[in-house]
TrEMBL record:
EC number: 5.3.1.-, 5.3.1.14
Protein name, UniProt field: L-rhamnose isomerase/sugar isomerase
First-level EC class: isomerase
Native organism: Microbacterium halimionae
GO molecular function, one term: manganese ion binding
Keyword set, alphabetical order: Cytoplasm, Isomerase, Manganese, Metal-binding, Rhamnose metabolism
InterPro entries in alphabetical order: L-rhamnose_isomerase (IPR050337), Rhamnose_iso-rel (IPR013457), Rhamnose_isomerase (IPR009308), Xyl_isomerase-like_sf (IPR036237)
Length: 388
C-alpha cells in the first residue's frame, strides 16, 4: 500500500501552482544577461512553454503576466490562446520599476503628476484583468530611499495609502489586490513596504479584497518565514505566495533548492492554517533561470513544491498534538522530522502514473523533443523582462 493515503492523494490532486511568464524569458544578474537558446520572443511563446510544464506535471494550470513585459494589443485573444493550450491567465503583476519617472517613487512619489501616472498604470492593469479573466493584481513597489534624511518616510506611507485606496476602488467585485513586501533592494536604507507588518497595515486599511503577498526570498537571513505564514493565515490576510529560494539576497532560485526543510515547514503551516488548496491563497513561483534551461527549471520547481507538500501531509497530526500537549519536546520534534525525512519520490512517481501522467516529468519533457524544436525555431529577438 502506498504511503500516500487516499486523503493525501486527494490533497495532492487539488494542488495548483501558478507559473510566472518571466521565468521563461532571459533574465540576469546585475552583471550579465545570458541568452538561452529557444527563449520565447512573445508572450504567446512564454505561455506555450508554461503549458508544457503543466502537460507533464498537471500542477501548473495558470500563468502570471507582468505588464508591460507581456503587453499585447488583444488580451482577450491572448486568453483564448492560453485556454486552447489548457492553461488560464492568472495574476497580473504591475511594474513601476523600469521607468525613469519613478526614480524617487511611484505610488509614494511627492510629485502628484508621477503618482497619478503610477495609479493610472495600476488601473490599466485592472482593465487587463477584466479581459484576461484574472482575479489578482499583484503590486510590488521598488520604492524607498538610500540615505538617512533623504525622504519623509511618514508622508510616503500616507501617500501610499491614498494611492492604494484609489486602486482598490477600481477593483471589480471578484477582483483582489495583493501587496508584496521586500526588506531591501533596489533601495538600501528604507523601503516603503519592507515587511509583512507594513503590507498588512496598508491592506487592512483598504478592505477584504486587499491581502498580503509573501515572497519567500524577501526576508532577512534567518527570518522564521513559517511564523509569518501562520500569522497571516490566522488573520485571513495571506493572499498569495511568490515561491523561490535564496542563499543570500533575493536570489530567485528554484524553490526548495536552497533549503527544502524551510519549504516543508512553510507548507506544514499552510496545511495547519487550512491554506492548502484554498482558493483564497494563490501559490505562485517568482523565479529566474539565468544559467539553467528554463522549462526544466520550472518543472523541477513545481515538483519540489509537490514533494514537500506530500511530506508535510505525512505529519501525524494526532501524535504531534499529543506530544505538544505533554510538552514532550523531543517526541514532537521527532514526529515532525519523521515526515520530513520520508522519501516520497517513489510513491509520487507511482501515483502520477496511476493518473496517466509521466512518472518522471523531467525525463518525459527531455524525451519530448520540445526543447530541440524551440531551439531550432526561435531565432532572433528576445522578450522584454529582467535585463531587457
Ligand atoms: C521583486 O523582487 C519581485 O519579487 C516582484 O514580485 C516583481 O514583480 C518580481 O520580483 C519580478 O521578478
Ligand atoms: Mn516576487
Ligand atoms: Mn523578488
Amino acid at each position: 500500500m502506498s504511503i500516500l493515503t487516499s486523503d493525501i492523494q486527494a490533497a495532492l490532486a487539488g494542488q495548483s501552482i501558478e507559473l510566472p511568464s518571466w521565468a521563461f524569458g532571459n533574465s540576469g544578474t546585475r552583471f550579465k544577461v545570458f541568452a538561452t537558446e529557444g527563449t520565447p520572443r512573445t508572450p504567446q511563446e512564454k505561455i506555450a512553454d508554461a503549458a508544457e510544464v503543466n502537460r507533464v506535471t498537471a500542477l501548473a494550470p495558470s500563468v502570471a503576466l507582468h505588464i508591460p513585459w507581456d503587453k499585447v494589443d488583444d488580451y482577450a485573444a491572448l486568453r483564448r490562446y492560453a485556454e486552447d493550450l489548457g492553461v488560464s491567465l492568472g495574476t497580473i503583476n504591475s511594474n513601476t520599476f523600469q521607468d525613469d519617472d519613478y526614480k524617487f517613487g511611484a505610488l509614494t512619489h511627492a510629485d502628484d503628476r508621477i503618482r497619478r501616472k503610477a495609479i493610472a498604470h495600476h488601473i490599466e492593469c485592472i482593465d487587463i484583468m477584466g479581459a484576461t479573466g484574472s482575479r489578482d493584481l499583484k503590486i510590488w513597489l521598488a520604492e524607498g530611499s538610500n540615505y538617512p534624511g533623504q525622504a519623509d518616510m511618514r508622508a510616503r506611507q500616507d501617500r501610499l495609502h491614498d494611492s492604494l485606496t484609489e486602486i482598490y476602488a477600481a477593483l471589480g467585485e471578484d477582483q483582489r489586490l495583493v501587496l508584496e513586501y521586500k526588506f531591501f533592494e533596489p533601495s538600501f536604507y528604507h523601503t516603503d513596504v519592507p515587511d509583512w507588518g507594513t503590507s498588512y497595515v496598508q491592506v487592512a486599511a483598504l478592505g477584504d479584497k486587499a491581502l498580503v503577498c509573501l515572497d519567500t526570498g524577501h526576508h532577512a537571513p534567518g527570518t522564521n518565514i513559517e511564523f509569518i505564514v501562520m500569522q497571516l493565515l490566522r488573520l485571513g490576510k495571506l493572499g498569495s505566495f511568490d515561491f523561490n529560494s535564496r542563499f543570500y539576497a533575493d536570489d530567485d532560485l528554484i524553490v526548495g533548492a536552497a533549503d527544502p526543510f524551510q519549504l516543508f515547514r512553510i507548507i506544514f503551516e499552510v496545511i495547519r492554517g487550512r491554506g492548502l488548496n484554498n482558493p483564497d491563497v494563490a501559490f505562485m513561483l517568482d523565479q529566474c533561470h539565468n544559467i539553467e534551461k528554463k522549462i526544466p527549471g520550472q518543472i523541477r520547481s513545481v515538483l519540489n513544491v509537490q514533494e514537500m507538500t506530500a511530506r508535510a501531509l505525512l505529519v501525524d497530526g494526532d501524535a504531534l498534538a499529543a506530544a505538544q500537549a505533554a510538552n514532550d519536546v523531543l517526541a514532537a520534534n521527532a514526529v515532525f522530522m519523521d515526515a520530513f525525512s520520508t522519501d516520497v519520490r517513489p510513491a509520487l512517481a507511482e501515483w502520477r502514473e496511476s493518473r496517466g501522467l509521466p512518472a518522471d516529468p523531467m525525463a518525459a519533457f527531455a524525451a519530448s523533443g520540445y526543447q530541440e524544436k524551440i531551439e531550432a525555431e526561435r531565432v532572433g529577438g528576445t522578450q522584454a523582462g529582467w535585463g531587457a
